[in-house]
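To fix ideas, we close by showing one paired sequence and structure record:
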Amino acid sequence: MCLLSLQLPSQIPRIVLNCTWSIKLILILILILIKSVCSRTRFEDSAPRILEDPSDLIVSKGEPATLNCKAEGRPTPSIEWFKDGERVETDKDDPRSHRMLLPSGSLFFLRIVHGRRSKPDEGIYTCVARNYLGEAISRNASLEVAILRDDFRQAPIDVVVAAGEPAVLECVPPRGHPEPTVSWKRNNVRVSAKDERISMRSGKLMISHTRKSDAGMYVCVGTNMVGERDSDPAELVVYERPVLVRRPVNQVVMEDDTVDFLCEVHGDPAPTVRWRREEGELPRGRFEIRNGNSLRLLRVSVHDEGTYTCTSENSVGKTEASAMLQVHVPPQISTKPLDQIATQGRSIRFQCGTTGNPPPAIFWQKEGSQMLLFPGQPSSQSGRYSVSMSGELTITDVHSEDSGFYICQAISVAGSVLTKALLEVEGGPSGRIPPIIRQGPANQTVSRGATAHLHCRVIGGSSVEISWAKNGERLQGRNTRLTLMENGTLQIDSDSGMYTCEVSSITGESRWSGMLTVRASAVTRVSEFIQLPGPPQKPVVTEVTKNTVTLTWQSNPHEGGAAVTSYIIEAFSQSVGSTWQTVADHVKQERHTVVGLFPNTVYLFIVRALNSYGLSDPSPISEPVRTQDGSPPEQGVDHRQVQTELGEVSIYLQKPVVLSPTSTRISWAVARQSRYVQGYRIFYRTIGSSWSVQDVEASSDHSSILEDLHSNTEYEVKIRPYFNELQGHDSLMVMLRTPEEVLSAAPQSLSVVQLTNSSSISVSWEPPPHNTQSGDIQEYKVWCLGSGVEQESQINRTVDGAVLSILLTGLLPDVHYTVVVAAVTSLGVGAHSQPVRLLLSVRCHIVLTIAEQITSIIRQPAFIAGLGVAAWLVLMGFSGWLYCRHRRRKQLGHYTTSFAYTPAGETPGQKSDFQTMHTVTFNFSHSKKNNTSFTANHQV
C-alpha cells in the first residue's frame, strides 16, 4: 500500500498541468490527505528487538529443558534458533524432532540427548528474530549436560587420633559437571557445620579438638544436579592418651629401708606400665611390681640411688613420671692415714679415704691448733698445707715444728667420723730427683752351669740402695750362688727367671727387669755394652700445652753393634710420683709429643735409644717444664693424687692356668693397694702382634679367664691398673702356651689325576689353613675306597707331614672310587677333606698280568653273552652236519663206507687195515691269534 501511495505523486503532476487552478487545488488537498494517511501507517511498524535473552543451562541427561527467548517488533518477528552457528531443526521442520519451538519463541527440549560419542544437544545456542524491517540476535547461551561419575577420586580412610588432637578426613568426590559439592554423614546422620570445632573445606572434614563422642563411621557425599554419590565408610577412632592420676614422688631413706613408688594411670586403650632406672638396671632380686603399677624396692643400698621413671604407653601416646631416690649412709673411714717419718724439706701426703652418702665433707686439723684445713682452700690462707678434693693432706717443705698428730674429720647429714696420724720430722737433705738406672739387667740366654751377670748401674749418688728380686720375690744374700758386686751387678751361677733391679733413695725409687734363660745347649747370648747404642743428646722442649709436651733430640753418632730402631721416653714429676715412668716407646723419629700429662705440673724427661742388642744409657735430663694451667679437676677427684697412687700399685702376675686349648685363667696378686683402682686391664698378644685388651673390674678375686685363644700358640700377658682414663704401671710380662687340639680344618685343594694308559692315580693337596693349625702335622692319611670292591682291594696310605702328594696304583677299571685326605697331629686324626670321586675308564689300555686278564675277561657280561652265542652256533652246526650226513648215506648206500679220524702228526706211509677207504682228517691248531683251522682230505 505504501509503495503504491508513494508512486501517485509522480503521475499526478502530469494530469494537473492541463487542469484548472481549482481542480489543482482540490487535487493538492486530496494528495496531502493521502500522504498524511500513508505516513501514519509507516510510523506504527518497527524492527525486531530481543526482550529476553536465553540463559545458560546445565541439564541432566534425559531431562526436559527450555531455552527462553522473547522478541518484539511490528509486524511480529519470526523466531529461529541456531546451535554452534547452524540452524536448529525443530518439530516444525520434522514432527519427530524432540525439539519444539514454542509460540513465545522459546526452544523446548522434550529430553536432552547425550552420549559418549554423540552430543547433539550440547552447544552454544543463539535466538534470531526477523521481520521486514530487519532482525535481532540474542546473546549466546550454552547448554551443557550435567554428569556425576560413581568412583571417588579419593575416598576417606580410617583415622585413629587421640582425644584433644585434630582429626582430618580427606575426600575428593567423583568427577562431575557441574563440580559436585561435598558433605559428610556420621553414622548415617548429616554432619552439621554449626559446631565450631567442625569445618569442611575442599572436601576435607576437619575436627579441631576431637572428643570420644566424635568417633563413628563417616561417609563422604558428593552431590550435584545429577544426584548423590556415597563413598565407602571410614572409621574415626578416638583414643585417650595415658593420664597419670598418682605420680611417684622423690624419697630420701636410710640404707636397708624399703621404698614404694606409686604410678596410677588411666587411658584408652588401657596403657601398659613399665619401670626403669635411668642410671642402669633395677636392683636384681630386690624389686617387685605391686598392684599392677607401683614399684617396691627392698633393702635399698647406696648403689640403688638414682632416678626411677614410670612409663605408661598405649597406641596413641605415652607419658612418663620420674622420682629421685636418695639413700643416706653414715660416713666411714675407708683409708686411714698412716704414721710417717720425713726429713726436713721433703713433701709428705696423708691419705684419708671416706665413704658415705651423701659424700661427707673432709677437713684436717693439727692437734692443738685452731686452724682448719678444707679442700680447695687458697694457699694464701693455708701456706704449705693443702687438702685435695679427695681429702688428701699435703705438706710441702716440712719443718721440724710440723711434727705432731693430724686429725682427719668427715661429716655429712647422716653423721660424722674422725681419725688421726702422727708425723715425725727428722733432719736431712731435701729430695729432688729419684735415682736413674743407667744400665739395667738385659735379657740373656746362657748355658747350664755358666755364670750370668745382671748389671744394674745407677746414677744418683752414694746414698742409693740396690736390691734384687726374682719373679717378684726379694733375693736374700745367703745364697752362695748369688753375688752382689759393688757396682750393683748381680752375679748368678744358674736359675732362669725374671730378675728385677730395685734402686731406692730418699728421693725416690726406680726398677729395671730382665729375663734370664738357662738352656742345656752351650750357646750363650749376652749383649755387651759396646754393642749398645750411645745415649741421645739432651732432649729440648719445643711446644707445651696443658696435657702435652713436644720434645726433640739428636741421636748419638755411636750406634753400637746395630742400627738404632726406636727410642723410649721416660718422665718424672715430683707432683705425680716418686719414680721415673715410661711415657712413650717405639718412637721412630727424633721428635715426639708426649700426651696424657697433667695441667700445671712440672716434668723432667730423659730419652734412651734402642737397637737389637738393648737400650742405651739415658740422655741428659731435660730442663724442667711446666704444663699449662687447665680447668679445675673434677669435683671430688684429684687427678694428680690418683695418678700418684696408681703409679705405686704393684702387681705380680702368677703362672697362668691353661683350662683348654682356647682358654686360660689369669691370676695376679696386688702388693700395694689403692682405693682408686677401678679395675685391671689385661693385655695379651701373640709374639710380634698387636695387643688385645680385656678389662676386669676390681674385686677381691684377682683373676679372669681369657677366651677365644688360638690353640698351640704362645702368648705374652701383662696387667695394668686403671682409674677412668688414668693408668698405672704394667706388671712383669709372663708367657703362656696353649695346648694342641685335634685339627678342626681339613686339607685344602684336593686334586686327583688319572695317569694315561695306567691303573694309577696321582693325589695332591694343600695343608689346612695356617691359622687353624692347632698342632704340628705329623702325617697325612689318604683313603681311596672303591664301591663294590672287596676289603683287600681298598687303598689306605700314610705319608709324612711334609709330603703333599702320593701315587696310588692297582686300581680296577669301571669301579667308582672315593678319595679322602686327613691331617694327623699328636692328638689324632683331624677333619676329613671334601671327597673326590672318580671312575677309571675301560677304554684305557691298561697293562695287566695274564691272570688279571683272564679274571677280568671272565667277569665281563659281554664274554658270558658271547659264550652263549658260540654254544648255540656249535649246536646248530652239529645239527646241520647230521642232516647232511643222513642224506649222503641214502645216496651212497651201495658203498661200504668208513670214517676214520687220523690224528695229526701220524707217520707218513703207515698202512691201513682197509684196501679202500675215505679218510677225513681234522687238524685243529692254535695260531698266535687263537684262530682254528680245518683241513679235509678225501681219498679213494
